[in-house]
Amino acid sequence: MGNKRYGMLYDSNACIGCQACSIACRAENKVHDDVHRLQVRIEGPKGEFPNLRMDFHRQSCVMCDNAPCVPVCPTGASYTNEEGINMVDEKKCVGCGYCITACPYQARYLDPKTGTADKCTFCYENRIKPGEKPACVSICPTNALIFGDLNDPNSGICQAIKKQATIKYKELLHTNPKLIVIPNRHGGEK
Ligand code: SF4
Ligand code: SF4
Ligand code: SF4
């Protein structure tokens, strides 16, 4: 069996925009109040009364296979681990911000406390390694998030992807994100 290749599926139809995920992320990863690893953007109301709807859009690192944030790093602090997760080595980061500029998803920030780059890590160190799900996935009350191994055709995430049409944000950039999205049935995903 080869390496795992972790991915996440976000069902924007199941999402209700409650922000439980972003709050859980903040608590789990001790994210500074001035920055965020995850937000759910709420757009709307859209449509004509009484047929109004809200659209939801997950804003976080999309875990690119071809990650622009990695090759621009002058110190090797920004790297991809053996399970395909793009990480930051805090000890090597000099806070130059090149990776932040290179990321087309506005997913990275300089941690106001440490001065080093940070972003979503799929909760790699504190939850994936010990065999748990990411904090945002565990807390979601509508099961709008599925996490798992994209290399295992029998995993829940692969089975779910097979059943319906999915997209990746900004596909034209060829970054090949491992955050995969079930688009809003009314269209309008970006
Ligand atoms: S979304 Fe941004 S931070 Fe995340 S892997 Fe892609 S380029 Fe890097
Ligand atoms: S901020 Fe840190 S991780 Fe980003 S490019 Fe500079 S040294 Fe590398
Ligand atoms: S996987 Fe972890 S770090 Fe990434 S958004 Fe979810 S809770 Fe935050």
Give an account of the 3D structure.
The chain is of the alpha+beta class. It has a domain at 6-65 and 121-182: Alpha-Beta Plaits (2-Layer Sandwich), CATH 3.30.70.20. It has five helices and nine strands; from the N terminus they run E-H-E-E-E-E-H-E-E-H-H-E-H-E. A three-stranded mixed beta sheet has the order 8-1-9. The protein has a two-stranded antiparallel ribbon with strand order 2-3. Strand 6 (109-110) and strand 7 (117-118) form a beta hairpin. The model has no long low-confidence stretch (mean pLDDT 95). Bound molecules: iron/sulfur cluster (SF4) (3 copies).
Helix content: 10-25%
Strand order, sheet with most strands: 8-1-9
Low-pLDDT residue spans:
none
CATH architecture of the domain at 6-65 and 121-182: 2-Layer Sandwich
Which term fits the overall shape? globular
Write a short abstract of this structure.
With 190 residues, the chain is α+β, with helices and mostly antiparallel strands.
Q: How is this fold's topology laid out?
A:
Blueprint: E1 6-11, H1 20-29, E2 38-48, E3 51-60, E4 78-80, E5 86-88, H2 98-102, E6 109-110, E7 117-118, H3 124-128, H4 135-139, E8 145-149, H5 156-163, E9 179-182
Parallel strand pairs: 1-9
Antiparallel strand pairs: 1-8, 2-3, 4-5, 6-7
One iron/sulfur cluster is lined by residues 72-73, 75, 77-78, 88, 93-99, 116-117.
